[in-house]
Amino acid sequence: MSKISTRTVLGSAIAGLLIVGSGGAAAAEPAPAPVAPVQAPDVPGSGAVAPIAACMAPGDSIELRTGLGAALGTAVGAITGLPIFIVGAVPFGIIGGVVGAMIGSTTYAQDAWRAPQGC
Question: What is the model's pTM?
Answer without folding.
Answer: 0.51
